[in-house]
Specification:
The protein has 180 residues and is an alpha/beta fold. It contains 4 helices and 6 strands; from the N terminus they run E-H-E-H-E-H-E-H-E-E. The protein has one domain (2-165): Rossmann fold (3-Layer(aba) Sandwich).
């Protein structure tokens, strides 16, 4: 499964990014993003064990883009930190934004369910690496969508692609990302 990191600061002015301690940081999530990060916990790891959406499963491995020369963004890691803490599993964040191919090779080598949090511009390319083509998944992720999960299920020796709207916060859509 792949999600986009949660809501980010405006290009200029409010809302501002804040770190986990409430300190202003342009590389962190905005308060709405922190709300989404918290809401993702019961979405992916419900207390009763029954996900609210078909196609969603509790991850056994978490990946997020690391901080490096092409991106100082903490948002992918911050988005899944509450989930990591609830599940008691480490976030694999050694792969930088530009290391998508190596990250996917590592993630696909895992025996279990993987959740990846990444920057939206790179998600279609990651999907293409998983699927082995550039025709199945949409080739752009809209800049205003933070509320969709891309799901890749292994069936009959190939990955099948689907999308699940999160519907976690006010304003979340109930539609998927269009291929056009």
């Amino acid at each position: 499964m792949i999600i986009r990191h949660a809501e980010k600061p405006a290009d200029s002015g409010a809302p501002f990014g804040v770190d986990i301690n409430g300190n202003q940081n342009p590389e962190s999530l905005i308060p709405l993003g922190w709300q989404r990060a918290g809401a993702l916990v019961p979405f992916f790891a419900p207390t009763d064990g029954k996900p609210q959406s078909t196609g969603i499963a509790t991850p056994q491995y978490l990946y997020a883009a690391g901080v490096g020369k092409h991106s100082n963004s903490l948002r992918p890691q911050e988005t899944i930190t509450p989930l990591s803490e609830k599940l008691g599993i480490k976030i694999h964040d050694k792969y930088l934004k530009e290391d998508q191919a190596d990250m996917i090779k590592d993630a696909m080598g895992r025996d279990g369910i993987v959740l990846i949090a990444w920057q939206h511009q790179d998600i279609p390319g990651i999907a293409n690496l998983i699927l082995g083509n550039s025709t199945t998944a949409p080739q752009t992720w809209p800049g205003d969508r933070f509320d969709v999960v891309w799901v890749f299920d292994w069936q009959n020796d190939a990955y099948v692609f689907s999308q699940v709207p999160q519907r976690l916060l006010a304003g979340d859509g109930d539609s998927v990302i269009s291929s056009s």
